[in-house]
Amino acid sequence: xxxxxxxxxxxxxxxxxxxxxxxxxxxxxxxxxxxxxxxxxxxxxxxxxxxxxxxxxxxxxxxxxxxxxxxxxxxxxxxxxxxxxxxxxxxxxxxxxxxxxxxxxxxxxxxxxxxxxxxxxxxxxxxxxxxxxxxxxxxxxxxxxxxxxxxxxxxxxxxxxxxxxxxxxxxxxxxxxxxxxxxxxxxxxxxxxxxxxxxxxxxxxxxxxxxxxxxxxxxxxxx
Amino acid sequence: xxxxxxxxxxxxxxxxxxxxxxxxxxxxxxxxxxxxxxxxxxxxxxxxxxxxxxxxxxxxxxxxxxxxxxxxxxxxxxxxxxxxxxxxxxxxxxxxxxxxxxxxxxxxxxxxxxxxxxxxxxxxxxxxxxxxxxxxxxxxxxxxxxxxxxxxxxxxxxxxxxxxxxxxxxxxxxxxxxxxxxxxxxxxxxxxxxxxxxxxxxxxxxxxxxxxxxxxxxxxxxxxxxxxxxxxxxxxxxxxxxxxxxxxxxxxxxxxxxxxxxxxxxxxxxxxxxxxxxxxxxxxxxxxxxxxxxxxxxxxxxxxxxxxxxxxxxxxxxxxxxxxxxxxxxxxxxxxxxxxxxxxxxxxxxxxxxxxxxxxxxxxxxxxxxxxxxxxxxxxxxxxxxxxxxxxxxxxxxxxxxxxxxxxxxxxxxxxxxxxxxxxxxxxxxxxxxxxxxxxxxxxxxxxxxxxxxxxxxxxxxxxxxxxxxxxxxxxxxxxxxxxxxxxxxxxxxxxxxxxxxxxxxxxxxxxxxxxxxxxxxxxxxxxxxxxxxxxxxxxxxxxxxxxxxxxxxxxxxxxxxxxxxxxxxxxxxxxxxxxxxxxxxxxxxxxxxxxxxxxxxxxxxxxxxxxxxxxxxxxxxxxxxxx
Lengths: 223, 628
What we know:
Structural class of chain B: alpha/beta
Low-confidence stretches of chain A: 1-14
Low-confidence stretches of chain B: 1-22, 417-422
Oligomer: heterodimer
Radius of gyration of chain A: 22 Å
Distance between the termini of chain B: 95 Å
Number of helices of chain A: 13
Order of helices and strands of chain A: HHHHHHHHHHHHH
Largest sheet of chain B: 9 strands, mixed
Helix content of chain A: over 70%
Helix content of chain B: 40-55%
Radius of gyration of chain B: 26 Å
C-alpha cells in the first residue's frame, strides 16, 4: 500500500456523502415499480431503514402507505405506518393498525414497544405500560421507552415511594415475569436505593447479564 | 513571666479562632491527598447543591462530613486550561494553556504534583479522556500518569469516543493505592458527564429522561468506591479528599449547549467539596466566592507543607474579596471571533469581548439582564481591571502541540469542532473580531451537524450550505464545507470553499493545509505543494503540513523531497505512526533499503503495535529481509 493510498482510503471510507433518499423521487420510483410488478420488499425495507435512521419518517407519508399496502405480509412497512400515524396524532388509526399487526406477527421484536408508545401517545397508559413491559420481556427496549415507562409508572412523579410500593406489589403478584423485577431494580436505582437494587441483581443473576450491571453490582460489594 | 503569659493568651486566641470561626489555617493536617476532578459537572447537578432529581449519596455524605463551597469558579470552560489552573495554582494567562488540543502545559511551571513529589509523596494520576493525554503536559510531577484510555484503532474503526468510564479509572486508582506505603497524592479524573451523555446501565435506564444526571449518579457510585477503599485501608482519616470540576455545562443558557464558547456561570461555576471540616464545623457551607487557583495554596497548607507566597490564590477559607478571572478562547482560536474574558466578584460579573456585559449577581444570578448601559462607571472599573490584567500577561510559556493525523481524528470523536491545529492568531487587538454572542446559533448548529459527519456527512454538507447563507465570512464554515466536499469528490464546491477560507484568513497555516489536501485530492499536486510550502512559511513547525507535503511529493515522484518532509514530520512528532509507516514503505519500495525500512516500522510498532497498516507493512518488510 502506497502512502498516497492512505489518503484515498480515508476518502473512500466515509459513507453517504450524497443524500441516499429523496421522498419525491422514491415515491415516483415505487409507483413505477409497483405498476411494472418489479418492486422488491427487501430493497424498500433497506431504504425505509435509512429514513428511520435519518429521523425523516414524517417526510414520506404516501410512500409508507403504499409500501404497507403493496407488501401487507411485511411487518416493517405496517409498523412504519403505525409509527407515522401515531406521530401524526391519528391515534385511532394507529392503534387499529398496531393491534392488527400484533395479531399477525406476535413474535416480532419491536411491535409491542411501538404499539405501547402509540397507546401512551393516545392517552391510554394502562395498555401502553403493559405493552412496554411485554416488549421488555422479549428483549431490551430503547432509552426513550424507558423514559415513558418510568414516567407512566409514577417513579418520576410526585410520590415515587407510592409508585415503588405499587410496582413491588406487581412483582410479588407476577413472579413469573423477570421484566417486572428488572423494572423494579431500575426504579430502585433512580430512587437511590442501591443496596436493594444490588440485592435483586444478586438474587436473580439472570438480570445482571450485561457487563455494566456487573460493574454496578461489584461497585457496591466493597461498600 | 509576663511574656509567658502573653504567649499563652495568644495560643488560646489562636485555638479559639481555629475552632469557632473561620480560620484560614486548617485546623487539621493530612498525610495524603486525593483530588477528584469531575469533568463537565455543574454544582446544581449534585444532591449536595440542592438537586432533588439526582442521587449522589457519596458526594452528599462527603459534604455533610466536611465542607462545601457554594460559589467556586474555574478559570476556563474547557478541560486542559482549567486543569492546568487547578493543578498549578496559576491562571491560564500565566501558564499559557489557552485551549485544548493545541497546547502543552509548560514543564517549567511548578505543579502540585511536582511540589508533593519533591516533598516525598508518591504521586499518581488517573485520567479518563484523551484531552488529558500525557502529550498535553500535565503528567509532569507524577510518578505514574495512567492515561491508557483506549486501544484507539478499535475505537476509530467504530467511530467511538476516546474516553473511559469512571469505573475503569477507579479500578486503576484502587490497584495503585494498594501499593502505597508512605504519603501519597492521587489525582482521579472522571469524564463521564461530558457529552455525549450515555451513562452505563442501570443509570441509562433509570435516568432515561435526563442522561446527564445519569452520568453524575454513575460517577457518584465510583466516588463511593474510592472513599470505601480509603476506609478499608485505614486511610480515610489521614487523607484529605477534594472534589471539584474543571467546568460546568450549559443547557441553553445564553444560547449555548455544552461548554467552551462563553465563560458565564453556567460553565465556570463548579462544585467544590472537602472531605474534612478543616475550617470549622462539619457540614459547613461557605458562601463566599472562591476559585480554582485557591486550591494549591490551600492544599499545601492542609498537608503541612511550606507555602509559596508567589502563588496568586488564597486560602479557601479567606473571605477576602476576590476578583475571579475566566476566559473563553475557543471563539478566538478556532472561529476567528473575539475572545471572551470574564471577571466576577461576589456581586457582579463583567465580560469583555468585542462587546461588553455587566450583570448584578445578587439580583440576577442567571446573568440575563445586561446592565452595561445602566452602570457605566462600574463597568469601566471592571474593564480597567481586566485590561490591566491582560496587559500584564506574560508571553505564553506553553508549547504548542502538533497533532498527528490520527490524534486529530480522535479529538473530533469527542465532539470538538475546532480543527486541532497550531495556529494562534497574533492579533494586537483581538476585539476587532465579531463578538461570539452573534455567532452562538451558528456554533450550536455546527455542533449538531458534526454529529452526522461520521455516518451521514451529506446532512452536514446540506447544513453548512444553509449556514453559509447567513454567515458568509465565517471561515470555519467554508473550510468544513470544502473539506467535506473534497471527501464527496465534488471538486468545484470543494476547491472554491477551501480557497475562500484560505483567502479570508491568509495568515493561518491550517487553512492552507486544508486547501492543499483538496488540491491533492483532485490531482493538482504542484498547486498542493505550493500551498503546503506557504503553510510552512507561516509556521515552519507545522507537522501536518510536513506530513502532507511528503504525500504530495510522492505523488509528484519526488521521493527524496518526500522522505525529507516525512523525516521532518517525525522530528516534530516522534509518535506520528503514519509518517513512520510511510518512511518505512518508501525506503523499502523506492530506496530498496529494507534495513532502514525495518528501523522505521519497528519504531511505529513500538508506539501502536496493533495498527493494521503498520502490521501489513511489517509483514512486507519481514518477507523482503528474509528473501535477502
